[in-house]
Amino acid sequence: MSKEKQTPEEEIEVTGEQINVDTDNEETTSTVDQISELEAKVSEAEDKYLRAHAEMQNMQARYAKEQSQAVKFANQKLAQSILPAVDNLERALQVEADDDSAQQIKTGVEMVYKTLISALEEHDVRAVGEAGEAFDPNFHQAIQSVPADDDHPADTIATVLQKGYVLADRVVRPAMVSVYN
Question: Per DSSP, what are the bridge partners of residue 170?
Answer without folding.
Answer: 167
